[in-house]
Amino acid sequence: MLSLSVLLGSGASAVERDTITKVFRAQNPEKTSKPMAPAWRPDNSSEVLVMVQAFYDGTGDLEAKFKQTYWNPTYGEAKKTSGKLKLKKPGKMVWDYGDGQDADYYANGDTLWMVEHDTRQVIKTSTDGNSEVNVALKFLFGGEKLTREFEVRYAVEDKVQRYGDADHYVLELRPKAKNKHYKGLVLMVHATTGRVDSFVVYNTDGSSNYFQLKGIKTNVGITDKLFDFKLPAGYVETIEE
Question: Which SUPFAM superfamilies does this UniProt record tie to the protein (predicted)?
Fold first, then answer.
């Protein structure tokens, strides 16, 4: 999957703050007004993470439309795509991109298939090898409890101004165990339900992905058959270790 170099620490240098500004403008340059924050929030940010866990503990399946913004620091540019997302426990996902150019993704919890339509190639690998899928699986469907796996805090002001509004808490998460693919993420959590409506994955290579989920529906009865991946006619499958 497409993969912002923004540090999760609070003491950013002038260079880092300039990078943050460029990233935020690239993600959504038309947003200039200062957002509001919920009128009340728990004293401890981990309580919000418990809300997130509770919401997804009660979610058997989920479907939504998504918008994705990929920031590449090497070229200093953003790429925007969109599509449909469907998920079902335990760990099943389909990321269906709508442009016919970007790769689609299928995951069954352990295995990930990346379908490249331009080259008519399918790459089969482990879900652990893709940071965005791996992170989504962490907070959506399963794994250890979030409070055990991540250090959490309320986001610093730069991120609150960029991502926050009157209906959402903004959390910064860092994995307690070092991860070779991603170094942290930001969750925008609905203040009433605990639902994650958008999230940013910060990759170890300096890139990032910002996902916005719209029209979220849960427990709609998605069938297992949807996730039975079959190699399309004329495509070649490659197994990546």
Answer: Prokaryotic lipoproteins and lipoprotein localization factors
pLDDT tens sequence across 57-86: 899 999 999 999 999 888 888 899 999 999
HSE-up of residue 166 (Cα within 13 Å, Cβ side): 1
- d(CA 106, CA 220) in angstroms, rounded, equals 19
The owner of tokens 């479907």 is 63
DSSP state for residue 39 in the 8-state scheme: S
The amino acid at 89: K
Residue type, 151: E
Backbone angles phi, psi at 22, to 5 degrees: -65, -40
DSSP letter at 109 equals S
Give the three-class secondary structure for 22. helix
How far apart are alpha carbons 71 and 146 in whole angstroms?
A: 26
Domain locations along the chain: 46-229
Closest to 146 in 3D by CA, of 45, 36, 31: 45
Q: Which CATH number applies to 46-229?
A: 2.50.20.10
Residues in the chain: 241
Count CB atoms within 10 A of the CB of residue 13: 9
Give the predicted TM-score (pTM) of the model: 0.80
Q: Yes or no: say if 188 and 203 are a contact pair by the CB < 8 Å rule.
A: no
Q: Look up residue 239 and give its two tokens.
A: 């197994």
* pLDDT tens by residue, 189-210: 999 999 999 999 998 888 999 9
Dihedral sign for Cα atoms in the order 231, 103, 124, 59: negative
- Record the tokens describing residue 166, joined without a space: 């009157």
